Amino acid sequence: MHGPHPSGQGSGKVSGFLKMQLWLFLRALSRFETTMFARTRYSQPKMVAIGVVGCLSLAVYYPVWAYLFPQPYENLPLRLLCSATFLPLALLQWWPRRLKSWLPTYWYLAMTIAMPFFVGYMTLRNATPSWLMTHMACVMLLMMLFDVVSFLLVFTAGSLVATLVFILSPTAVLHPQPLLEYIPLLLFAMVGGAVCSVSSSMAEQSRLDALTASSNNIAHELRTPLGSLRIAAKAVGRFMPDLIRSHRLAEAEGLRVPELREQNLHALERSLGVMEREVTYANTIIDMLLLAARPIGEVPLQRLSARECVEQALRRFPYGSRAERDRITLSPVGDFALEGAESLFVHILFNLLRNALFHTGRAGKGEIVIYIEPGDDSNHIRVYDSGPGIPPDVVPRVFHRFYSYSSDNHEAGVTGLGIGLAFSRAAMEHMGGGIVCRSQWGEFTEFTLDFPHPDAGDTQ
Fold this sequence. Notes:
About 65% of the residues lie in helices and about 10% in strands.
């Protein structure tokens, strides 16, 4: 018998290495896209003003530099073209929903064209003090609008295109002396801006750490009163049937006892169940908060059964009513092994179920079905609901931290901090998998959890 061919083992290792590199590249792109969205969202309240000012200033400054303070070079068509890139930003409130998902991409593209490209090209053509100061102001503005990585990307791309266009311009004349004198000042401004940006990020992280520590303390302090409330509820539930039965016997014997209507007695019996559910729900929320505050990388992984984890999540989920539980269906077949953490897995399903129950309940329609699907390349768990769906411009954003649909839809009465799905994505990445969302507005929403085969994960 012949063993496995060495070349086959080598090609398998190469294939595994390439897959890992591709996964890392796609993950980096995903994180950069998240950063693009975050910076765009922070700048969005100012975009209309930036669009109006940019559109007008590029056109208005033409007579200033052409006639009032003449510069060696001017180009009205180029000014009007770059001015037009600001126009869609000025008209942002009239964008249709289906186009708003492209806003981050357009924002980066418009800033690249209108600032480092146009200002860089005009600075190369003129090299006058006025344009050198304009270029410096452009750099400072870009560093205020973007993080360091995004600034470097936008500034480098725009400057390279400006340099290429300058080289290809037949009448372009280089002015080396003022440009060489300007380079040290430009480098100093960029390094100083980057340091200030890093200091701002550190301050923001410190505030976030302080908020996390405060949340942990509050969550721990709530454990004691909730535990006391649960003990009291169990004690009342233990003796309540005897008290109600004694009251009814006393009434039957004609004794003088306070009058209690039948519906009041039923309300007392139901209130115990409500207390139990609310305490369970509060404890579940505390567990989720404490888990979300813990660094995901510290959570150990082990071999688990997908079906057992799903069934446990369905048992532990704090349903608001029996009708909510009946709205969820688990597919009767399918199971697979996964390398993960039970706490993370249950937390992910809690987030998906809570969102699905909330939106189907608000819409007054929709059922929720969970599918467990083993596969050849990877294994999947799908959480499908036939509720109202998600608008197409919102779908690309749902995994972004601190983004909530309520920020774009105040009329819907949707509340949330926008951290549940972001945590779910981070948790899935820690377990070597991923999560994607697919939705049709007005028809359905489906979240798919993708798990690699445990053996494949060990090999990689």
